[in-house]
Design a protein that fits this description.
The protein is built from 15 helices and eleven strands. The chain is α/β, with parallel strands linked by helices. The protein folds into two domains: 253 residues, Aldolase class I (TIM Barrel), CATH 3.20.20; 65 residues. Helix 9 links the parallel strand 9 and strand 10. Helix 5 runs parallel beside helix 7, helix 7 packs parallel to helix 8 and helix 13 runs antiparallel to helix 14. It starts with a helix and ends in a 5-residue tail after the last helix. Bound molecules: flavin mononucleotide.
């Protein structure tokens, strides 16, 4: 995933030249019976969207967050061991929060979904999008887009295992590849899943083959939303700025947008999107604010795990935070070279003490 993030960070976001729509309505998002609110949510992000990242996002305006994907068998093996316990830990301030499942065999999904429900997740999401080699090679994630009957059996198993008041949702890419057959299978799964009681579907406008190369196809998202009608569609792909969130809502008509790489190191994007929607664009956070949030994130990591884990987690996140600093390359390199929390704090003190 690190390659995916660095490779894609270099790609320019697409430009959607729509005329300003003064009357463009932004409706609050609901997922089944769960009221979300402003429709910019934080995506599931493997290696990133752990408890501390989710709390930071919530405190800074995300209305809903998703935990990083968990493999069904891994969930079943989590037996309260200290090292892995935090994967199922949710704090009060996180709700509503979604837990995401990935696996290969439909029969394994039901028990794993029950475990996510017992842990307190408000929404259970199924991953039919992961493009990484180990997932697709292991018949998981995006692989299921090639076999609608298995994908829909998974939906049935999860929907049956989860109490009715808890929404089940899907995450899909727009297909395995660009073939007409892949497209047909996408819509077969989409319609079949809604018919089986799925409450919302997040669609990433890239194919599995595409991985992260090239743009997310927002025209396809628009087509999906037109097809879905009143059924809830959340769009994903190339949401790197608050403006892009508003543009996607406006251009595609989707009910919500799922911010992924754009939220790593920039949790302000959620309140910026809301401010923009209300006509009061917000400036970028100054260094005092960036320092406050970096230190808050670090404290949350220490409480959730331990100093050693917090050190490597914060190194990964702060490298992304550095993009907002006036000297991004120097700050990025300084964070990358930190090997323990005291070195990491020294970088924060050196680069985030001035007010400009
Ligand atoms: C580092 C990384 C981790 C990801 N982990 C997950 C995941 O656990 N579950 C999921 O459904 N999607 C995952 N995704 C996909 C994102 O949620 C999103 O669909 C994708 O990055 C496209 O959005 P973007 O172009 O705005 O980043 C991940 C993406 C990245 C870059």
């Amino acid at each position: 995933m690190t390659n995916a993030t660095s490779q894609l960070d270099r790609l320019p976001p697409p430009v959607w030249n729509q005329p300003p729509a003064a009357s463009f309505p932004i409706r609050p998002l609901s997922i089944g019976g769960v009221a979300i609110g402003f429709p910019a949510v934080q995506a599931a992000l493997s290696g990133y969207s752990d408890g501390p990242m989710r709390i930071v996002a919530r405190r800074l305006g995300a209305t809903y967050t998703l935990a990083e994907v968990m493999i069904d068998r891994f969930i079943m093996e989590l037996k309260g061991r200290r090292k892995t316990q935090h994967h199922l830990r949710i704090t009060d301030e996180e709700h509503p929060v979604g837990g995401q499942l990935m696996g290969s065999n439909p029969v394994d999904f039901g028990p794993a979904a029950e475990k996510l429900v017992a842990a307190g997740f408000d929404v259970i999401d199924i991953n039919f999008g992961c493009p990484v080699k180990t997932a697709v090679g292991g018949c998981r994630g995006g692989y299921h887009l090639s076999q609608p009957h298995v994908a829909l059996e998974i939906v049935d198993r999860v929907r049956e295992a989860v109490p009715l008041q808890i929404p089940v949702t899907l995450k899909m890419r727009r297909g395995i590849d660009d073939s007409p057959q892949s497209r047909d299978r996408f819509f077969e799964i989409l319609d079949g899943a809604f018919a089986r009681g799925v409450a919302a579907i997040t669609v990433h406008g890239r194919t599995v083959d595409q991985k992260y190369v090239g743009a997310s196809n927002w025209d396809f998202l628009r087509e999906v939303k037109a097809h879905a009608g009143s059924r809830t569609i959340i769009g994903s792909g190339d949401l790197f700025t608050a403006q892009a969130c508003i543009d996607m809502l406006r251009w595609t008509g989707v009910d919500g947008v799922s911010v992924a790489r754009g939220a790593i190191g920039n949790p302000w994007i959620f309140q910026q999107a809301q401010a923009l929607a209300e006509g009061f664009p917000m400036p970028e956070p100054d260094l005092v604010e960036q320092r406050r949030v970096l230190l808050m994130h670090c404290e949350l990591c220490i409480s959730a795990t331990n100093e050693a884990t917090a050190s490597s987690t914060m190194r990964a996140h702060s490298i992304k935070f550095a993009r907002l600093h006036p000297q991004p390359d120097a700050v990025r390199n300084a964070f990358a070279a930190s090997h323990c929390l005291s070195e990491w704090r020294a970088v924060v003190d050196e680069w985030y003490s001035k007010t400009t």
